[in-house]
Amino acid sequence: MGRPKITVVGAGNVGGTVAQRLAEKNAYDVVLVDIVPGIPQGKALDITQAGPVCGYSTRVVGTNGYDETAGSSIAVITSGIPRKPGMSRDELLATNAKIVKTVVRELVSRSPNIILILVTNPLDAMVHVARQVSGLPKSRVLGMAGVLDTARLRSFVAEELNVPGTEVQAMVLGGHGDTMVPLVRQTTVTGKPITDRLAPDRLAALIKRTQDGGAEIVGLLKTGSAFYAPSASAVDMVEAIMNDQKRVVPCAMLCEGEYGLKDVIVGVPVTLGRSGGESIVEYDLTAEERTALQASADAVRDLCAVVDRLLTA
Ligand SMILES: NC(=O)C1=CN([C@@H]2O[C@H](COP(=O)(O)OP(=O)(O)OC[C@H]3O[C@@H](n4cnc5c(N)ncnc54)[C@H](O)[C@@H]3O)[C@@H](O)[C@H]2O)C=CC1
Ligand SMILES: O=C([O-])CC(=O)C(=O)O
To answer: Lactate/malate dehydrogenase C-terminal domain spans which residues (predicted)?
Structure first.
């Protein structure tokens, strides 16, 4: 039996880097798909040629079609436009919903057992589109945002306290937008509560910077958005699933009553294992966090109603 196949759709900044990071694991076959002729083929060749230097022998195929994707275990979907400075992620809705709709159809028709990890923005609404189009169970349609938002908070706290980022644990829930919800009680530095180490006003400032973390990078780059930490975060989810780690990871998944949220996709702690999002873990939230999560879910629900109208029009 060969290696499991992971497809990456969109060979731009995020997708190209996801393919590179996956190739470096030396554990998968990687298929990179893009609509632009030459780009996925060129990037696949380039990544393959790094193999002898980096010590991997991953088969990486670049293509403009979907036949090579048949039998994929997971697809990481990054196809779509990124925002420009001054734009919100929600402004990408109409363009990216159409792209995600066609891509998901192509993938699922060739890989009926596939697990989808959405990256395209606006994230939570794109997970909704992928579920509607694919009809796959909720455990197999996930969105990457919580790992990234959490990593940003961990890195800001680490910088502030001059500790390694790996020593900071955190959990950011909610939609991937202005309404994301960092859980202060789950935030620790070398195992101790963050509130023992940081004054409330400093912590509030770092949380605000986390909420604006994507926009900060969009403003600096001028064209395009973040891709190193986003690609690392998507690959972290792939690894948790493929290695059946049963690790609790914040990611976007359909809630059916958990946290009091009904039929809405939003970032929640999910146990990731070989069948995808295996369960949603319910932490004790403060009343304030619960209200914030509800507000975040309401914002996602509004956006999903808009996308439903767009896709049926
Ligand atoms: N969930 C998250 O936390 C994050 C989400 N994003 C989102 O990811 C998406 C991609 O970002 P980048 O890679 O930086 O953009 P990019 O512009 O560098 O790459 C996007 C690629 O998608 C391709 N594409 C467009 N339509 C396609 C189709 N129908 N089929 C196949 N490929 C198609 C384009 O040709 C392009 O190569 C954006 O929507 C961005 O907002 C980016 C970072 C983090
Ligand atoms: O900010 C953006 O548009 C891209 C993204 O979602 C992020 O980096 O968090």
So the answer is: 148-300
The ipTM value here is 0.99
Cα(77) to ligand 1 centroid in Å equals 8
- What H or E segment, with its residue span, contains residue 30? strand 29-33
The fold of 146-312 is: L-2-Hydroxyisocaproate Dehydrogenase; Chain A, domain 2 (3.90.110)
Testing ligand 1's pocket by substitution, the residue of 7, 31, 35 carrying the most ligand atoms inside 8 A of its CB is: 35
How would CATH label the architecture of 5-143? 3-Layer(aba) Sandwich (3.40)
Q: If you count them, how many residues does the chain have?
A: 313
Residue 113 carries which DSSP code?
T
pLDDT in tens, 112-149: 999 999 999 999 999 999 999 999 999 999 999 999 99
Residue 183 structure tokens = 């859980």
Contacts of 19 (CB under 8 A, 6+ apart): 8, 11, 30, 32, 43, 44, 47, 60
Does any ligand 1 atom lie closer than 6 A to the CB of residue 180? no
Q: How far are the Cα atoms of 37, 124, 284, 302 from residue 42, in angstroms, in the given order?
A: 9, 31, 48, 40
